[in-house]
Design brief:
Elements: H1 2-34, E1 45-48, E2 54-58, E3 63-64, H2 74-84, H3 96-109, H4 119-128, H5 135-151, H6 154-162, E4 171-172, H7 174-182, H8 191-199, H9 213-229, H10 235-243, H11 261-275, H12 279-283, E5 288-291, H13 295-308, E6 315-321, E7 328-332, E8 350-351, H14 357-366, E9 374-377, E10 382-383, E11 389-390, E12 402-405, H15 406-412, H16 415-425, H17 427-436, E13 455-456, H18 458-469, E14 473-474, E15 480-484, E16 490-493, E17 500-501, H19 505-514, E18 543-548, E19 552-559, E20 562-569, H20 583-595, E21 610-615, E22 631-636, H21 673-676
Parallel strand pairs: 1-5, 3-4
Antiparallel strand pairs: 1-2, 5-15, 6-7, 6-20, 8-13, 9-12, 10-11, 14-17, 15-16, 18-19, 19-20, 21-22
Amino acid sequence: MKKRVRKRLMIGSIGIAGSVLLSTLLVLLYCYVKGAPPLAIDQNTHVYSVAEEVIGVERGSENRYWVELEEISPHVIESTLTTEDKRFYDHLGFDMKRMASAAMKDLKHMAMVEGASTITQQYARNLYLSHEKTWTRKWNEALYALRLEMFYDKDTILEGYLNTIYYGHGMYGIEAASRYYFDKHASELSLAEAATLAAVPKGPTYYSPYTQYENAKQRQELILSNMKKQGVISEQAYTLAIAEPLELTEHNEERAKRMAPYFQDTVLVEAARHLDTDLESIRSGGYHIYTTLDVSKQEELEQAVNEHMPPSSLEVGAMSMHPDTGAVVAMVGGTDYERSQYNRAVSSKRMAGSTFKPFLYYAALEHGYTPSTTLMSEQTTFELKDGTAYAPSNFHGYYADAPITLAQAIALSDNIYAVKTNLFMGTEELVDVARQFGIKSKLPSVPSLALGTASVSVSEMTEGYSLIANNGKESPAHTIVRITDRHNHVVYERTEDEPKQKLDESKAFVLAHLMTGMFDESLNDYMRVTGASVSPKLTRPYAGKSGTTETDSWMIGFTPSLVTGIWTGYDDNKELTLGDQTVSKQIWTSYMEDAHKKETIETFNPTGDVVGVYVDPDTGKLATPYCVSPRLTYFESGTEPTEYCHDHMPSEEELPEQSPSQPTPEKKGVRKWFDWLF
């Protein structure tokens, strides 16, 4: 009988051992087949200026940084191993001795009262699982721990653990904790500071040195004592660490202002588009985003906005970019980011007003206009094809009541000239040409489009003007140069392709030079040029165009190296006051002068197919020595005037005898053939 029992016991034992062995092999096989679990976690994304200075740190719901094990103070590693898992480098993911002790206590209390998790198990839980105390979670934790130990070395696991453990106050990982508690990098922590941080993960609320200093200090001393007992530190190091005062960083509860916040928001959207992902993944993906932001220009733009915006609810949208590369160097999307994150430089669409006219006049140059082409400026009612009438008016109802040149029409922003030109070409033509300039917004094919009745954004208008500044070459606006992932691998890099020639080079130059006229009072006529109020403040050549509607004020202008667009108005489309109407020009002037103050003076260099001649601003004809304000004007070769101005000639008694070959002067006020079309 006894022999039979022994046999059964032996068979049972062998069966149990075989089952255990088989189960172990199946578990190991399962872990092997499943492969290495991913180590990716949410991390802070860093945003850099063009000079590669950190201008912002984007985070998801948690604050994280990642540092290599070599960049972490040895004191942190020693105090963490002593506290959390002193046999970490000796076990295969499970500390059997601790597990047995914890299991006895759990069975005694019939509940999970004590844990024995190793660093590997805690890392597995941090990466893949919740922190609930259930047997299912413990089983899954064990499987993940096996897989981590099977496929990764100990240093990789320890590095991951130290970069993911929670240290309280929203700080995940030793680097984030070091910065938050002591305002230093993890590599710079002293023994006392390292032991203090090693104390926190056991109870981030209970052991926070900010809220529970005594608890934190007691646990720090316990950790230091254990390190001394285990021979990790000397008696002297222990004594010095115990005595070292903890200099915690003071945190201002007021939210710190981000540099160029509207620009950074635009960067995140652009990054998500390039990487084909969502914004949250960008914020928490641990990326390093290298941008085009010029910190000094951003500060100058913000200063100009702060200096000239009135103390009212008037808002602003502004963007500045290099026309040759498309790099956006500065951006302001509103007066107060904390109050409103709506980016008026990118997202808002407002009526462009007369800033739309340069697109019209480029089309006019394509249809045979020259800077000297004259049209009658007078109050006019246009009868349209559908039988309706359209009667635009000039600013304050002023008219020349005489022919004016294209050069004057741009400088004075004459609306009658613009509408006549739009109707002469056909309203569809302006829409098509605006598309060439990159305007993507909805554009109505109507006579009033010449006066900027379409709603457009600051960004697309500024980008459109960059083609003019860059002699017709297109370099799309962008904010990102390069993106690297958390391992410093390049995942996106902008290629510097040769800019596309979208416009005729010579016509683009002629237009750019015509746009310098808004600051040149030699073009004054029935009113002053539109830039007369700011031209005394300008110290170098600029080209530009302003525009004003009842609710919107614009100023967009450029040098060969910088294009800047400014819009001001009210979010609720409230009518502008007389003072409001000048703000955009004031901001633009202050910023452009500051942005160029360290730069050499640039000129708009004519292309090979352009000639410059002096003309009389009133008649558009070649100037004579008697013309009061001759202006150097550029024409495409072969289109320059050949007839001399006679309007400013002296009286007949003062004139020398006229040769028969001299042309007969044409009196101002005689209509040109264009006028008879309307």
